[in-house]
Each structure stands twice: as structure tokens, then as C-alpha cells.
Hints:
Elements: H1 12-24, H2 31-39, H3 45-58, H4 64-69, H5 76-92, H6 95-106, H7 137-148, H8 154-163, H9 170-177, H10 185-198, H11 204-212, H12 218-231, H13 237-245, H14 251-267, H15 277-285
Amino acid sequence: MVHPPGFADHSALLKHELAYCLGQMKLVSALPVLQSVLENLDEDPMVRHEAAEAIGAISSPDFKAVLTKYLTDPNRSVRETCEIALAKIEWDNSEEGRQHLVSKESSDQTPAYTSIDPAPPCSKLLSGQPRPDDLSESSIASLRATLLDISVPLFQRYRAYVCTPQHRTPAAVDALAAGFSDDSALFKHEIAFVFGQLLSAHSVPSLLNVLQDASESDMVRHEAAEALGGIATPEVLPHLKEWMTREDSPRVVRESCQVAIDMWEYENSGQFQYANGLESVRVEATPA
């Protein structure tokens, strides 16, 4: 199979982003390419993980067997991603999932976040914005408990973290940040991604701790760097510059900091939108 040129690149970050975009575009025609990326054991695990997640985002039941095959993959992040992607496909094709899709397509509300998440929000938030009682301390505490409970299936923990940022409070941010104590790199990198969507300055200290932790997974540090670039508060820039140039900084961290600095500069320039490449690709991919 001939891959798109981007997947022949040496940059794991670029290939990871390409796989992410293919999933967000929900291109069924991209599934064979994503399958081949997942099946390539010589590929960077971060790229293989993103290919599996993209297969879940596209959500074709025909590719469940592919994901099932890699539930025993040597790499934990790949295994866990396949587990979550399978659960997402099952949910998307359940009665609740189909009803949610119909409701979302008929709604005139603008969603707070437009990305396709690896898991849907918890059931009580499927209908839209949280109710006042969902913002209570007890509600946040309940979500936090689910988020941190390693005995709960990973898909359910993901549903809790998708719910938590809907509250947009310091308590919700703290609940998410507690997830950085988990031993799953996949789980921690998704929390950093959510912080990048939430854009709360309250998350900056936690994200900086992740970026500066040389013992942390490159995948997690990469996501923390890009989240910091999007939040774009003054204190993050020196740290991004430091890790972009340090000799001991892994390549994916250096490149992510370079991207994050670019994001930081755009956010502080007063321009309307940063690098809306995905929308451009969608337009180009739309048949005439």
C-alpha cells in the first residue's frame, strides 16, 4: 500500500498529527492507510496509537477485528487505545449512541468543543450543557473519583474526563490534573489534550510540571507543550523556549515546543485563529 507522503516523514509528531486529522475528518477512505500504520510495528508507538484512535473516531464496525488484533500489542499505549476505540465503536452503534447522533445533528446549539473525542461524555451531559446541580462540589468529586479509579474500565474513565471540563471551574481543572498521577501515559496525554481545549490558566502549573519531567513519556510531554502554547500566558514562553533548544530534549518534545511557541505568538498577536489547517483540508477533500 502506498502511504500519503506525510507518513513517510521522519517526524513522529507530523505523522501523529496526520493520523489525528484523518480521524477528525471521518474519512472512511483513510481506514486502510490507518490500518497499515497501526500494523507497522516499526512505527513510533505514538503514531500507531493515533492511527488506532483515528480508526475509533471514524467508527466503522468493519474495522473492529483490526483493533481487536492489537489488544495484546507489546506497547501499552497502543493496547489501551485499541481497547478504547473498540468501546467507542460499540457505543456509537448502540441505541444511546445512535440517539445522541440524531440529537446532535438536529441541534442548533454550537458545541463548546468540535473535536471527535475518543469517548463520549458521561450520559447526563449528552444532551448539552451541564445543569446547575452538575456544577456542585459533589458532582465534581464524583467525576474525579471515576477519573482516578483504576478498577473502572478505561472507556468509562475517559467518559468522566470528557465530562469534567464542561464545568470550566478550578475544581474541575484540579480534578483533571490529579489524573497526571496515573501510570498510563495514554491517559495522561489525553488529560493534557483536554487542558489544551479548556485553555484555563489554572492548569498551567500542572502542565509545566509534566513538560519539565524528563522521566515522563514523550507522548505526555508533547501534549503538555502544545496545551501550554494554546493557553499562551506569559510565564509559559521561557519554558517552551528552553525545551525547544535543550540538547537532552527528545525530538518530539522539541518539535512540540516549536509548534507551541508558534501557537503562543499567534494567541498573543490578536489574530483571529491559529493554523486552521484541518478545516482547509476538509474543504479540499469535499467533492465538487
